[in-house]
Structure formats: C-alpha cells, structure tokens
Amino acid sequence: MSLRDLQLSYEYRSDSTNIVDSFYIPCLSESKEYWRAVGYFTSKGLALGAKGLATFINREGHMRLVASPWLEPEDIEAFTKGYEAKEDILERALLRQLGEELLNEASLLTRHRLECLAWLIADERLEIKLAVPSLSLLGNGHGIYHEKIGVFIDAEGNSVAFTGSPNETVGGLVSNFESIDVFKSWEDTHGRVERKRSNFERLWNGLTSGLIVVEFPVAVKRRLLHFRPMTRPVVDLESGMSKSSNVPASTPIQVVDIPSDIKLRHYQVRASEAWRSNDGKGILAMATGSGKTITALASAVGLLKEIGRIFVVVTCPFQHLVDQWAREAQPFGFRPILAYQSRHAWLNTLNARIVDYNLGNRDNVLVIASHATFIGEPMQNTLSKVKGPTLLVADEVHHLGAAKGRTSLPQMFVYRLGLSATPKRWFDEEGTAALEEYFGQTVYEFPLKDAIREGCLSKYYYYPHLVELTSNELQEYEDLTKKIAQMFESGAAPGEVPALDSLLRKRSYVLNTASEKLNAVGELVKSEPELHHALFYCVHGQIDEVTHLLGNVLGIRVHHFTMDESVEERKRLLESFANAELQALIAIRCLDEGVDVPSTQTAYMLASSSNPREFIQRRGRILRKSPGKEFAAIHDMIAIPSRSYYRTLATQSTYNTERRILRKELTRFREFAECSENRFQATEIIWDLAKAYNLLDF
User: Fold this and answer.
1) Is the residue at 259 inside a domain?
2) Which among 156, 180, 135 has a CA at the least distance from the CA of 36?
3) 564, exposed or middle or buried, with CB in 10 Å at 0-12, 13-18, 19+?
4) Residue 292 sits in the same domain as residue 229
5) What would the DSSP string read from start to end of 529-547?
6) Which helix (H) or strand (E) segment is 149 a member of?
7) Cα–Cα nearest to 671, from 433, 431, 421, 468
8) Of 315, 276, 320, 272, which is closest to residue 296 (Cα–Cα)?
9) Does the first or last residue of the chain, that is N or C, have fewer Cβ atoms within 10 Å of its Cβ?
10) What is the per-residue pLDDT across 490-545, written as a single tens digit (0 to 9) for each?
11) What pLDDT digit, counting tens, does each position of 298-323 carry?
12) How many domains does the chain have?
C-alpha cells in the first residue's frame, strides 16, 4: 500500500473524528519520511501514534522534527542579552521541559517510550532541531515559534501535507478541540504540497527569515541516550510497544559490514589488499563499471575492523555522484552525511558527528562531499577538528590534480585512497605528480580489456566513420593549422601557452561540428531497423541540429541531456531512456563521468576528444551491463580534411604538425579498436589515413 490507497479527507475536526486514529496513524504507517514542525513537542504525543510508529520504524522510516524549546521568561531574557551561549540556554530549557519524563524511570510505559525515542535518535532515524525567533523578535520579551505543519512521504514519492492547530503533545492531539487541513500531492493542482515541503526544507536548513534554527543540544541528546538499550528495540505491531530482543546485549545497534548479498570479485579483493599492504595509501586505476565504489567501501570496512574506528570522507566531482555513493554506502551500514550546496544543510550535523566521534561515542563516520565543497574553507576548517584515524577516498581523483584542488588536500588524513579509470592527467605532469605524492602511486590496475574478459562490462563493436570536411570547413581548418604549426615551431607547448590552447580548441571545434557528420549519422540511423537505447555525443554547436534531425526529420523519440536540466529532470530522463519511452539521449559531456546508463546499446560520437580521460569515460558509460544486453556498438564520426588532401600532405608545410596531432587522435582509435570484437575490420577503415601520415605504428 501507499498513501494514495488511504481514504483521506481534506479536513479533520475533533467534533467529528479522532485525528490520531483516522489520520495520524494511517499516514505514519504508510510513510518512509515524516516531517513535522510544531510549537510544542513531547514524547507522550509521539507515543499516541504507537501503532503507526511501529510500522514506520520497521519500514526504516526517518523523521525530522522542528519544535520550539518552550523557553521560560528568564531564558528569553538571557538569550536576548547574550548572557549565555545559545546552546546552553536551549539545553536548560529542554531539560526542564523533559525532566519529569527523563527522571521517572519507575514507569514501564515511560521507559519503553523513552527507549524507543532514544533509539530513534541514536540510529539517526529521528532528527530534532529547535526554532526560536531571532533577537529582533524577542526584544519585547514575547513570542515563540508556534507554526504547525506536517508532511508524510511514502516510498513511491507521494506526499500528504497538513496544517492546523494541534501540537505534537497529548493535549494537542487528544484533549483539545483541534482541526487540520489536508493536501494530497496526487490531487494538488495548486502546488500547496510542494509549498509546504519547500517551507519545511527552508526551515530545516535555517533559511526562514526571523527564526534561528539549531541542532538538538548535544548534552540533551546524551541525557536521552542514557536510556538507549543495548539492542535495537523490537516493536510489537499491535501495541506499538518495544519488547526485549533475542539479540545479545553486546550487539551494537548499527553494524558496519559488507552486506551478505555482495560477494567481492577476486580483482576487488586484490585491489583492496594492494592498498592495505601499502599502508593504506595509493591509487586504484580500475575501468569504469568495474566496481570501484564497492571496492573502496569494502576497504573502509576492512580498515574499520582492523583499527577499531575510522572517520571517512569521500569526495566526488559531481553532486549526482554524491547521491550515488550514498545509495551504495547505506547497505554497508553507514549513515552518510551528504555535503554539497548550502553549508546549512550539513554543517551542524557534521559538527555533532565529529563531537560524537572524538568522544568515542561513534566508531565510524562517513561524509560524502562534492569536490567543490570538500576543498572549501568551511569543510576544511570543520574537518580539522577530527581527533582519531581518518580516511580520504577521492573518486575520479584526477579532478583534484588541478591547481586549486591539489593545494587544498589536507595533511590530516592518515589513510588515502584515490579512484579513477584514468588517473594520469592529460598534458599536466605537474598535477599528476602532485596526486601521486599525496595519495601514493597506483597500487593496482584493472584495465578495460580485463573488465570485459571478466564479464564486468559488455563486449562491443567499434565502427569508425571517416567524414570529409566541406571546402569552407577545410579552409578554416588549414588556416588554423598553419597558425598552430608556427606556434609549435616557436617552441610553444599545449597546456602552457593559452593562445595555442585556444587555437587547438577552435580547430577541434571545426572537426567536431563538421556538417557532413549529420548526414552520416542520419544514414546510419535510417539503416537501423528500430533505434532504441542510443546515445548521441556532441558539442554545443551541434545539439540543436542533432535534435532537429533525430526528432523532427527522422521521428525519433529523443531528448537532450545537458547541464541545463535539473537533477530531478535528468533522473526522469534516464528512467524514460531505460524503459524505452525515449529512444535516444543527446549528451554534451554530462554523461562523461558518474552517470549510469547501463541500458545503452548504441553510441554515436559526433564530438571526439583526444583526451584519454574523456573518451575512456564515455566508452565506460556505454559498456555497463544490463539485462538483455549482449553487445554494445560505438559509431565514431572522424572528420578528415579530404582524401585528396591528405594524400598530398607530403608537399604541405603543415605536414609535421598534422602528423603530430593526428598521432594523438589515433590513440583513441587504437584504444577503441583494440578491445573491440571487430578490431581488424575497424583498423582497415583508418588504414589509408594512417598510411598517408606515415603512422602505421599506431
């Protein structure tokens, strides 16, 4: 069942129904997330929904609560005058409010309720924040946070939002005369549910004007954890009460280990062992799709078991990779903090975890951050507070070799692990050397040909297509080539002279946007009996033309996949692509790293790159395994001046420059052809071109 299956009214009032039984418990029973913002909260109020809470707990539900600390007048006065630290004042107020419950251990029901509440907090299934009006609102000695909104979210993403008068207390939910208004996402044509969700997110992240939102005080959390049972409470679905577990008392609530349904491949075990035997430092150069993430997580688990505790930071180049790492890490028992975008979303939680780790109340912490967040000052300053063993895992580690990244790598990490299919930086020996100095040398390699042989990736066919430039394109190509030749003769080198890099980019653009590529692609698509699960790689100057050709001229169900689409929109596009609602996606570099599109069966590369990192990453995206996928096919559009042109190159002044640059291009051809199922046929296609430039050794 889901929230959609509930027979929910649009309004509940105390004169006609029991709000707890008719609304609160059913919604809680069908939810994976419960967001609540109230003026007052007590654990007795939460316990009223015991049956719903029991199901919620067993479904791995997560609750976020924002409430007023119910400050007394003297607290308000001290707060406004700044006599004491805010956290200390809020702590004292909460201890007074909850004191009777905390100290009354004689009551079995109270004990059960507090054990459940303590366990939820300890297992990070219940997060509590406190909201108080800012100083400008407290100056007159009056005013509290008194909002009352709630949002239920089920596993399918359906939402039920409600607003009204009840607080999360016994009086608010039972004794008083109350009413609530209910809004359902699947029937909401006015966007009310989304507004309620957005308002709560802004409140949770401390972005609501006029309010100060702080983490549940650490000392109060310690007081609640005094009641934390040594085993996870087993909750009776009928009564909602916790009862004794058969798990030994020494078993921790949260166990970090390799999931039973994951069996490491032999090369993953070897990679982990190679890193461990190198004192926990080094780079793993493993093919895209070979399971680098699982290898790294297993290595972290092994290290945790060996030394007893570990603080792990994983850093990734893109936000979607942060989310992917989180999904992979959770089955291992980790409860990751995701750090990207606004620091308000993660900084307080990170500080609290660091305090827990430093005091020995946690044996592990996992932070997953984007590269941009990781090298930023707020993250660096916060991580400097960690006391104890630390591990840094850098996904797509080559990104950190750029000047800003490599100068921001902190020395605090005792253990360091770099991951990449292509750890060497293109035209950047200094950056590569800096990465190897920090992380260590490459300790294990698992190239693509081995990944295909092991069955980790799909076999593939490679089809290079030579496409001639038009006369105008050829003229521009020649002009740029002469200028490049002159700069090479003067001793200029790529990556060192901006003017040369600019010319190389312009000439590459001429090749990538060659107009005949569209005609060649059009003919290839027409020859397909039924195009499906196809990727088209291009550059910005092509995307509109490619979209028009495929969608309007050829009638293909297609959509572009770029940085212009939101994260949610890209997720929807990938789902539509996987289930064949879309026949094709047109990408501009956005699929180069980290985005899984295993259902891809055919790729058309209109835009080519001589940078090994880019074309190897692209190929890796295409070769991921998927049910029903036996082979993949790669069509590579290779622009050449013209057959008559390159056959007379020996008389041209630009011959040596052409030869030098083409050798780099042939690196990609060789890489793609060498591991393909049709390598000899593919080589025949480019043989004449290589022969004209005396590059038969490619």
Assistant:
1) no
2) 180
3) exposed
4) no
5) SS--SEEEE--TTTHHHHH
6) strand 149-153
7) 421
8) 272
9) N
10) 888 877 788 998 998 898 888 888 889 999 999 999 998 889 999 998 887 788 89
11) 999 999 999 999 999 999 988 878 98
12) 3
Q: Residue type at 468?
A: E
- What is d(CA 171, CA 70) in angstroms, rounded to the nearest whole number? 15
**Cα(first)–Cα(last) distance of the chain, in Å?**
60
C-alpha angle 417-419-421 in degrees, rounded to nearest 5 = 155
Pair (385, 489) in one structural domain: no
Q: Are residues 463 and 440 in the same domain?
A: no
pLDDT, tens digit (0-9, with 9 covering 90-100), for 423-437: 776 656 777 888 999
Query: Tens of pLDDT along 321-379?
Result: 898 899 999 999 998 999 987 888 898 889 888 887 887 778 899 999 998 899 899 99
Query: In the numeric block, which tokens belong to residue 517?
Result: 């590529």
Task: Report the distance separating Cα 515 and Cα 473, nearest Å.
Answer: 9
Distance of alpha carbon 135 from alpha carbon 142, whole angstroms: 11
Tokens of 549: 């050709």
Coil, helix or strand at residue 192: helix
Same domain, yes or no: 409 and 469 = no
Residues 6+ apart with CB under 8 A from 616: 288, 421, 422, 448, 671
For residue 172, give the CATH number of its domain. 3.30.870.10
Q: How far is residue 660's CA from residue 431's CA, in Å, rounded to a whole number?
A: 23
Contacts of 435 by beta carbon, 8 Å cutoff, 6+ apart: 283, 397, 398, 400, 401, 406, 418, 423, 425
Residue type, 380: Q
Q: What is the pLDDT of residues 530-588, one digit of tens each?
A: 899 999 988 877 888 999 999 999 999 999 887 777 777 888 888 898 888 999 999 87
Residue 397: domain span:
268-446
What 3-state class would DSSP assign to 213?
strand
In our burial notation (b when 16+ CB lie closer than 10 A, e otherwise), range 197-206 reads: bebbeebbbb
227-257 per-position pLDDT tens digit: 444 444 444 434 444 444 333 333 334 578 9
Q: 3-class DSSP state for residue 578?
A: helix
Query: pTM for the whole thing?
Result: 0.62
As a whole number of Å, the CA-based R_g of the chain is 30
Q: Which of 562, 471, 480 is nearest to 515 (CA)?
A: 471
> The tokens of 265 are what?
């491949």
Same domain (yes/no): 239, 285: no
